[in-house]
Design goal:
- With about 190 residues, the chain is an alpha+beta fold.
- The chain has one domain (about 40-180): minor pseudopilin epsh domain (minor pseudopilin epsh fold, 3-Layer(bab) Sandwich), CATH 3.55.40.10.
- It is about 30% helix and about 20% strand.
- The chain contains three helices and eight strands.
- The longest helix is centred in the first third of the chain and has 52 residues, at about 15-65.
- The termini are far apart.
Length: about 190
């Protein structure tokens, strides 16, 4: 007897078995891809709104610690390197010590504390009613209060089924994150 004949026949997959596996895999991907996209948008929306909430908490704590006003303003400083308040928060924002509580970063008295990049493409930051982009200066006083109620709404890209996330700030300066509080604008 030949040694080769004692071995098991060659093992492997037939063409039909491979085709069945490919059909099952394609079906799973076509069902799972939209769910995965929605999950990605949800995670990104939560991360971006948490970044802004971090900036608010930083401004409030720095105002108390420094015993002077600290503000958050829309700024593209992360990309341009120029410390100026301009545009909308979706393009980026900065936290700065703001002795005179204006929208100008004065070279002698004001200090830029932190700069944040803007939102990813497709994501929107607007007021709660969704009628305009968010651009107003947010200031905290040395006692940690903001003396204004405000709601900023973060919206996912248009095709997403993800609910909006809002940062709600009360008059004493406390900020919190709320899900599904307002309708995102249709563009």
């Amino acid at each position: 007897m030949d040694r080769m004949s004692l071995r098991d026949p060659a093992r492997g997959f037939t063409l039909i078995e491979l085709m069945i596996v490919l059909v099952v895999l394609a079906t799973l991907l076509s069902v799972g891809a939209p769910l995965m996209q929605s999950q990605l948008h949800s995670n990104r929306l939560r991360a971006e709104s948490s970044r802004f909430l971090h900036a608010i908490n930083l401004a409030r704590s720095e105002a108390v610690m420094r015993n002077l006003p600290v503000s958050i303003c829309p700024s593209a400083m992360a990309t341009t390197g120029i410390p100026e308040c301009a545009g909308v928060f979706a393009d980026g924002w900065m936290v700065f010590a703001n002795a005179d509580k204006d929208k100008i970063v004065d070279a002698g008295t004001d200090e830029v504390l932190r700069v944040f990049e803007g939102l990813p493409a497709g994501f929107v930051l607007t007021n709660r009613t969704g009628t305009r982009d968010a651009f107003e200066l947010i200031s905290y006083l040395p006692d940690g209060s903001s003396h204004s109620n405000r709601t900023l709404m973060f919206c996912p890209p248009q095709q997403s089924a993800v609910q909006s996330l809002s940062i709600v700030m009360n008059i004493v300066g406390r900020a919190r994150l709320v899900e599904g509080w307002g309708e995102c604008p249709a563009v």
